[in-house]
Amino acid sequence: MKQEEARRIGATLTAARPQAIAALLRHFRDLDLAEEAFQEASLRALRTWPENGPPRDAAAWLIFVGRNIALDTVRRRARQAELPPEDVLSDALSDTGDAEAEIVERLDGAQYRDDVLRLLFICCHPDLPAAQQIALALRIVSGLSVRQIARAFLVSEAAMEQRITRAKARVARADVPFEAPGAVERAQRLGGVAAMLYLVFNEGYSAAGDTSAAREPLCEEAIRLARLLLRLFAAEPEIMGLAALMLLQHARARARFDAAGAVILLDRQDRRLWNRAMIAEGLALLDKALRHRRPGPYQVQAAIAALHARAPTPEATDWGEIDLLYGTLEIMQPSPVVTLNRAVAVSKLRGPEAALALVEPLGDKLSGYFHYHGLRGALLMQLGRTAEAREGFMAAIRLATTAAEAAHIRAHLDALK
Amino acid sequence: MFYALLCYHQEDVVCAWTREEDDAVMERLAVVHERLARAGKLGPAARLLPTTAATTLRKDQDPPLVLDGPFAETKEQLLGFYLLDCVDLQEALAIARELGVANPGGAYEVRPTSLFLDGGARG
């Protein structure tokens, strides 16, 4: 099979995954079974789609095929077991006759997002620590690889593998209720779901130019899920903030990479390529959120993104306000990455020396972080400390996870010569 | 006289369109819009942001109550509108049919207006 075709199918499978697994989970109430069935259906897709052409509705195809695969598994298990689990079997078998009709009806009604939401909430079971909830959801709902998830969390692959295995074991032991949770319980889980959605978004957003098209469905899925959450929780300012943040960032998608796939930084982007409808929606949601006077980290981050979106030129950016907002975020959600971002604003306001003073103490915590070394190198370069700047850029290149990131740093290194 | 054409569709379905699908619909509509504009039939028209961006002011109490979300929880949502200068219902329906071919799914409510103010604001 041609590599490009495999990539295209892979992207389609990634995009269809949350919907398909959620539907299979609803049918069979068994996470492992749903995942295995989806996996097997995906393999079949890779075998048959190149010959027959991809189906018009990939998700419907995967649900239908996956459902038959899972039914076979249930039947096999029932035969092997001493006492057949009749309730499960009859439950699963009772509605196979009109499976196709049901699938058509479901896709028509766009009911799948309720399935997806249910799946998200199950991944966010209160028995699971937050980090495990998020990792599990990223693995199961979004289908990210353990390596990708580890990268998003800045931990090793082995540690992440263990985290996900533990989370799965716990969900299996916990006898998770498959009914949708009540209003109060749901509201408690919103925070975890929101955080997880933002990570899903970021996985798509941080993709390099050459893979951004394949990963874009992640950003769009995250935005769609955020809109869905907002329809269910219409008066939650942090969900408005989350949706606004994602829209304002995704609005820049077309301006973020050049033709060769290299990153174009915010101040060099062609702002005419920014998606005005997304910006308008993001600003409207932020406007709505601020009316509630219940600030939170997503609203603050959306407000920062809004200041960039509102600036007609890079020079018109209100860096003073951005510095203040990052300061607020540092109090709400202390993190060395937030401080690193504030340092960018400080460098624009008060110059590279002041910014470097903020960046240097972060070395202990961020020594394995690409952007730390990239920014540090850039600040040192501005200060004319060429040798140290080169060291910083070299460290950044070693940590670059995409070709675009590496190319961007290499351009800086070339400028140093 | 002006007829309002209120565009209803399932918002989650429209939101699930890929960008390519959305672009294709807008391209087909643009052809009809241009013809209507040339014929002097097209008044102000708008595509609305998703209902999640909506805020509702309930003014049946004092002070009015401000609520998040659209006024009505309906299966299909108001996603846009046209004002069309038509001589009668028959003409308005003919245009609605034509727009419906370019943008299938959902429904158009054809509603004559009793007052139209061209306030002159240009967004």
TrEMBL record, chain A:
InterPro entries: DUF6596 (IPR046531), RNA_pol_sigma-70_dom (IPR014284), RNA_pol_sigma70_r2 (IPR007627), RNA_pol_sigma70_r4_t2 (IPR013249), RNA_pol_sigma_r2 (IPR013325), RNA_pol_sigma_r3/r4-like (IPR013324), TPR-like_helical_dom_sf (IPR011990), WH-like_DNA-bd_sf (IPR036388)
A family per Pfam: DUF6596
Official protein name in the record: RNA polymerase sigma-70 factor (ECF subfamily)
All copies of domain RNA polymerase sigma-70 region, residue ranges: 17-79
Domain RNA polymerase sigma factor 70 region 4 type intervals: 120-170
Domain of life: Bacteria
Domain DUF6596: from-to ranges: 189-289
From TrEMBL, chain B:
Name of a matching Pfam family: YCII
UniProt domain YCII-related: residue ranges: 1-112
SUPFAM superfamilies registered for this protein in UniProt: Dimeric alpha+beta barrel
UniProt cross-references to InterPro entries, sorted A to Z: Dimeric_a/b-barrel, YCII
Family assignment from sequence similarity: Belongs to the YciI family.
Family matches, as PANTHER family: BLL7171 PROTEIN, BLL7171 PROTEIN-RELATED
Name of the protein in its database record: YCII-related domain-containing protein
Lineage: Bacteria, Pseudomonadati, Pseudomonadota, Alphaproteobacteria, Hyphomicrobiales
